[in-house]
């Protein structure tokens, strides 16, 4: 008997140790699984927030500058020396898609490189006109600006030429001036007629031009200005806001999917246990009432009713 008792105690301790080890292993696996799942969720939320900010940045921020060369064309006169028409040019910004962003203001500037020649000095003031049109030829806007070469006195020209002779001889510099003509300060794109073509016309027959180009620069303001000039601060704030939003959406989704199941399972368990208890109590009460009725019927004396008596008619 003692051997059987000792064996039972040993078996109980072994089973208890095995159960404890199994519980510890299951707890470790559950903790590892939850930790890995939580880490994956956090990494996913962070990357989704970064992706949302990058997508918003490229969708919201316009291209800062567009630059195109302007190649002037003209017709020569055969009878007289010079030009028979005004120097003109056509620049195609885009063929089909929209280049400028709707609602964004742009500054359009034309840079004209003119030689410091006696002809240009004699011309003095000249006029440059620009016409903006859509792909169907509809005139969206037009603008004209005037300018001239910067004036230099004879003394200033002599001193400037004396010091610049080495650069002129080596080709590092030339006797020319770059004239800046701001055609539009706050040009805004028309949604119905997006600009695709720009036409230039220099209103002077005798002007001499080295080269020309057009720059379209976006005038950033508000949130766009902050995002461009303070990119790190804007990125931190934007990604942080996206983190809060994505985490809130994920929490609400998790609660909607898994929280409802937990809420439903617990009341069902409670209702199941209480329902069974109530049913058992109800059955026991019914059994007791039935037994009481039977006992009463057994011990009560037999009574006759008037309806049960059969009296023969006389």
UniProtKB/TrEMBL annotation:
<feature type="transmembrane region" description="Helical">
    <location>
        <begin position="228"/>
        <end position="250"/>
    </location>
</feature>
<feature type="transmembrane region" description="Helical">
    <location>
        <begin position="37"/>
        <end position="60"/>
    </location>
</feature>
<feature type="transmembrane region" description="Helical">
    <location>
        <begin position="155"/>
        <end position="174"/>
    </location>
</feature>
<dbReference type="InterPro" id="IPR009617">
    <property type="entry name" value="Seipin"/>
</dbReference>
<keyword id="KW-0443">Lipid metabolism</keyword>
<dbReference type="GO" id="GO:0140042">
    <property type="term" value="P:lipid droplet formation"/>
</dbReference>
<keyword id="KW-0256">Endoplasmic reticulum</keyword>
<dbReference type="Pfam" id="PF06775">
    <property type="entry name" value="Seipin"/>
</dbReference>
<keyword id="KW-0472">Membrane</keyword>
<dbReference type="GO" id="GO:0006629">
    <property type="term" value="P:lipid metabolic process"/>
</dbReference>
<protein>
    <recommendedName>
        <fullName>Seipin</fullName>
    </recommendedName>
</protein>
<dbReference type="GO" id="GO:0005789">
    <property type="term" value="C:endoplasmic reticulum membrane"/>
</dbReference>
<keyword id="KW-0812">Transmembrane</keyword>
<keyword id="KW-1133">Transmembrane helix</keyword>
């Amino acid at each position: 008997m003692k051997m059987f008792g000792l064996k039972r105690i040993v078996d109980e301790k072994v089973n208890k140790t095995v159960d404890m080890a199994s519980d510890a292993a299951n707890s470790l696996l559950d903790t590892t699984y939850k930790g890995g799942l939580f880490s994956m969720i956090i990494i996913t939320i962070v990357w989704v927030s970064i992706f949302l900010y990058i997508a918003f940045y490229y969708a919201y921020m316009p291209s800062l500058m567009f630059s195109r060369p302007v190649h002037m064309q003209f017709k020569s006169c055969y009878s007289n020396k010079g030009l028979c028409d005004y120097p003109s040019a056509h620049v195609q910004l885009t063929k089909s898609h929209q280049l400028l962003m709707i609602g964004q203001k742009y500054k359009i500037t034309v840079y004209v490189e003119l030689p410091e020649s006696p002809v240009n000095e004699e011309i003095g003031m000249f006029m440059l006109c620009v016409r903006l049109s859509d792909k169907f030829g509809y005139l969206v806007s037009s603008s004209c600006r005037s300018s001239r070469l910067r004036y230099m006195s004879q003394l200033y020209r002599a001193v400037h030429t004396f010091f610049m002779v080495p650069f002129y001889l080596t080709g590092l510099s030339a006797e020319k001036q770059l004239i800046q003509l701001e055609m539009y300060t706050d040009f805004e794109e028309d949604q119905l007629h997006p600009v695709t073509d720009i036409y230039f016309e220099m209103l002077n027959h005798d002007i001499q031009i080295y080269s020309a180009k057009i720059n379209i620069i976006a005038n950033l303001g508000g949130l766009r200005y902050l995002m461009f000039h303070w990119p790190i601060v804007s990125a931190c704030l934007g990604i942080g806001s996206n983190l809060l939003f994505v985490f809130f959406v994920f929490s609400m989704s998790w609660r909607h999917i898994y929280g409802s199941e937990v809420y439903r399972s617990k009341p069902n368990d409670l209702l199941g246990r209480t329902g069974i208890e109530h049913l058992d109590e109800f059955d026991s009460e019914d059994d007791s009432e039935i037994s009481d009725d039977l006992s009463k019927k057994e011990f009560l004396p037999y009574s006759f009713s008037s309806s049960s008596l059969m009296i023969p008619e006389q």
